[in-house]
């Protein structure tokens, strides 16, 4: 089955969560169906959903018998243990021939190459967050035949990128949406040990928060809860933009609902193809409105939506609307306990690499302004990461700033960072800057494969930032071998056993964030707008950050939100990560680069933290004593995702 308009193919892509639902959906008015098998996909939370091996085989046969297409989701991030399962699963898929797999983890590419699998086309998942021309070119070189566009990509950008690359685009046109950039929400892992990027999100974005800023509290209700995507009335614009595949969200939805959505969109597409001039956009739209789970939005399709994107009706605290069950309620970030520290020490010690004993660990610091950077150099840090996402009110680094900093750097290295999301303007700006002088820079802190692809010919060493979410040694090696990364940061989402396994297996140098308040939600949505358009309901000062910074408030604590000069928002942990007590074990496990995430501290606070870690590095046997002297700047210390995951049997805890 195929649809065409002016020679352009149009595919309506429907979801299915179970085999019974698949058997109904495949005979609806769609061109293709996507579904997950028994493992390695991002819909593992609901018991009884996803297809067995036999059902996957039968589903693909049924699809092809009808002249339709079947896409299998292999879109989890994969830990070390998953890699063996991935080999079996990909070999199985190669034998039965789906029309493509939808993948997130870059380890899929070397797995397929090493196994010489020739029957597994790859589509990049929305969780790859494809958002610029060079990302598409890089993926094309790696064999990707279709990209699922970033949720924040507007149709005009999609049209331009399609025209320049010829790449097929898949675009979410209906259903549940996230406010956070794809693969850039780490909060569920920090709170529960359940990774949103491994299909186990506990939906902290659906909590009832209050916004607090400038000493005022605002009645925001659900400031992170997105409306559902709704493009039913904009099929002409989707087709004009060159979108190939119109993707319906809903692998966790019931059969009746999916049939209604699929047939509605299918019938509308057919009506437009049959009579584009006389096409009625609104025909039968009342069916979708009457059966909506939340209010509707066109999200980013026609530009940045603002707070109108946020849902207020039909919203439930932490509810997963497919089941109506509450996934989670506001939860405090865990405190550090001596018992868990002992477990972390012992487990990481199991990954010991004797050859690292004589290598001095190095200290890097991520800074937000020139004053912080100069302080870091003065304190003798090894590497200063100059951020690409400068938080207001600090100003972006200028060329003169970089030259002033590199002229005084001494033995320190100055590495220029990039924004996490780089649109075409960002790519042009960095390209112009970097190709018109080196400014004494010692490297680049790279956030996406588009930047890796574009700047690897400059001869500057490149380091993969933590948002690349490296979960296994094979993705680390791909970044190293294919893109030339000198080292990568480990994912902040790794629970203890997965973190230890990565250190044990990786031949690529791994850097670890050991202190600070890292960003756990990266949003295009501007939460500060709430404080600009709403009237306050009461007054209350922030507890741990200056009142100029917005915080999201629940009864369990405050999370600061920082706004950068691109207007993006960065939600941080309420507490600080602190790995001081087991720096020695980390170093013995091969970690030779410790990073302080220092952007949110005052310069003097940052100096004190740097001095503490510099002292620790001189003699790692004293880390326990130093830890007992430390006092948190924010709401306390946490181990983040290392609070979770299996550990070795305990001996009596050391004090």
Layout of helices and strands:
Blueprint: E1 3-5, E2 8-15, H1 19-25, E3 32-36, H2 53-65, E4 69-74, H3 80-96, E5 100-103, H4 108-114, E6 122-124, H5 133-141, E7 144-148, H6 155-165, E8 168-175, E9 180-185, H7 187-192, E10 209-213, E11 216-221, E12 228-230, H8 235-240, E13 245-248, H9 255-274, H10 285-290, E14 296-297, E15 319-320, E16 325-326, H11 338-349, E17 362-367, H12 370-378, E18 383-386, H13 399-407, E19 413-417, H14 424-434, E20 443-446, H15 449-455, E21 462-464, H16 473-483, E22 485-489, H17 496-505, E23 510-516, E24 519-523, H18 528-533, E25 538-539, E26 550-554, E27 557-563, E28 569-572, E29 576-578, H19 583-588, E30 593-597, H20 603-618, H21 623-629, E31 637-638
Parallel strand pairs: 2-3, 2-13, 3-4, 4-5, 5-6, 6-7, 7-8, 8-13, 12-14, 17-18, 17-30, 18-19, 19-20, 20-21, 21-22, 22-23, 23-30, 29-31
Antiparallel strand pairs: 1-2, 8-12, 9-24, 10-11, 10-26, 11-25, 15-16, 23-29, 24-28, 26-27, 27-28
Helix pairs in contact: 1-9, 5-15, 12-20
